[in-house]
Amino acid sequence: MTNPTCNEKATQIFMELSPYFQGLGDPIRQQIVALLIDKESMNVTQIAEHIPMSRPTVSHHLKILRQAGLVNVQKKGTEMFYRLEITEAIRLFKQLVTFVEEECN
């Protein structure tokens, strides 16, 4: 049986991960993240060429990914370029897995 301390700590890490789960909770946003894995950065038009959605819809999903902390944006001239920013999410996922493996068995 798992001890209460283990449950509390795992729950705390899950709560920290919650924005990332919410950001990744849609198949379109998952496609965008998968697309950005292979690219340094892309603008909305470039992303929309690969995703079967309109530019406004892609922009909406990029906004959610930004709010979740999964992408960041950089303005170059008049264009906004999006790039994946998953370092913190990966750190928290690793922390959760390590904690559960080492402390909750």
TrEMBL record:
It comes from the Bacteria. The keyword Cytoplasm does not apply. InterPro entries: ArsR-like_HTH (IPR011991), HTH_ArsR_DNA-bd_dom (IPR001845), HTH_CRP (IPR012318), HTH_MetalResp_TranReg (IPR051081), WH-like_DNA-bd_sf (IPR036388), WH_DNA-bd_sf (IPR036390). Residues 9-104 form the HTH arsR-type domain. Keywords: DNA-binding, Transcription, Transcription regulation. GO terms for molecular function: DNA binding; DNA-binding transcription factor activity. This is Transcriptional regulator.
